[in-house]
Write a structure and sequence with these properties.
With about 300 residues, the protein is of the alpha/beta class. The protein is built from ten helices and twelve strands.
């Protein structure tokens, strides 16, 4: 949350230059406050795990948030109980006339398929088109980020060859961005994917900004120039043991899988994993929610998209 200070306080300019969010008395007096409406399109097979991870990040803020869950009905979920889906998830037809302050589109384990081969691709396209007029700011994660860049900007995903698997260091390219307020110059973030997006393809689109990159993981975070879309290639919301569970699952299936990089203590799977991304992951979600949703969404939610 911002710190409220007198309008003419000399420290104001210094703090703003240091990327500290300050709110003048005038702005504070004229702010209207209401609960934020957030929609989560959960494309992951382990829906309850993903729900918990994201809600944990979204809840660590003084903002009041109303979260609704959306699913793709053109895909049959095999790893989540149907009663859970019927109780807590809605379909696109049920929410199509609603407006939301923010939305999160998760990743999905379908990277090795062409987008058009995914059974719910047409439904996802309808939803992404719908966000243009019905959602103030959308955050796309991992495959959801690649799908969003492809649909909105025509950027193709690229096969990486070997799976990008582990926790990698990233460099902030735009330190003045509110998304990185409180960040160090570099930060760690988990990845688990077979495809990515070339930085050159992003930089050719004038409506996009590349704001974080990694020597090992490549393009990391992209935003639209109007700040209505964010594309995060990794998983800052992952729990400490998420990559370990994926690793041992594949090992037990007899599949060829590399040890996740920079993850287990001493890079030894017999040792416990070390979480080096939790603080920055929390800060990223809090900053997105605060600066790009709460601080800029219209008080009259019906004005979103106008």
């Amino acid at each position: 949350m911002p710190i409220k200070i007198p309008d003419q306080l000399p420290a104001r300019e210094t703090l703003e230059n240091e990327n500290i969010f300050v709110m003048t008395e005038y702005r504070a007096m004229h702010q209207d406050i209401r609960p934020l409406r957030l929609l989560l399109l959960n494309l992951m097979p382990t829906k309850i795990v993903t729900e918990t991870q994201l809600l944990r990040k979204l809840s660590n803020t003084p903002l009041q948030i109303e979260v609704e869950f959306l699913r793709a009905i053109s895909h049959e979920a095999k790893n989540t109980d149907s009663d859970h889906l019927e109780s807590f998830y809605r379909s696109y037809d049920e929410i199509r006339n609603q407006r939301y302050d923010g939305m999160i589109i998760t990743g999905a384990p379908v990277e090795n398929m062409d987008f058009e081969q995914v059974d719910y691709w047409n439904e996802l396209c309808r939803i992404m088109e719908w966000t243009k007029k019905n959602v103030h700011c959308t955050l796309h994660i991992c495959w959801g980020a690649q799908a969003g860049l492809y649909y909105h900007y025509g950027i193709e995903k690229r096969a990486l060859g070997d799976k990008l698997f582990g926790v990698f260091e990233h460099r902030v390219l735009k330190p003045k961005s509110p998304l990185f307020r409180g960040f160090d110059d570099s930060f760690m973030m988990p990845h688990s994917r077979y495809t990515g997006v070339n930085a050159e393809d992003v930089l050719r689109v004038p409506q996009l900004e590349l704001i974080a990159t990694s020597r090992e993981a490549g393009t990391a975070i992209v935003k639209s120039e109007d700040s209505r879309h964010f594309f995060v290639m990794g998983h800052p919301e992952y729990d400490t043991d998420t990559l370990a569970q994926e690793y041992w699952r594949d090992v037990n299936k007899g599949l060829a899988i590399q040890v996740p990089a920079n993850y287990f203590k001493n890079d030894n799977p017999a040792e416990p994993p070390v979480n080096t991304w939790r603080a920055h992951g929390q800060l990223m979600y809090s900053n997105w929610l605060n600066y790009y949703v709460y601080q800029s969404t219209p008080y009259d939610i019906s004005a979103i998209g106008e």
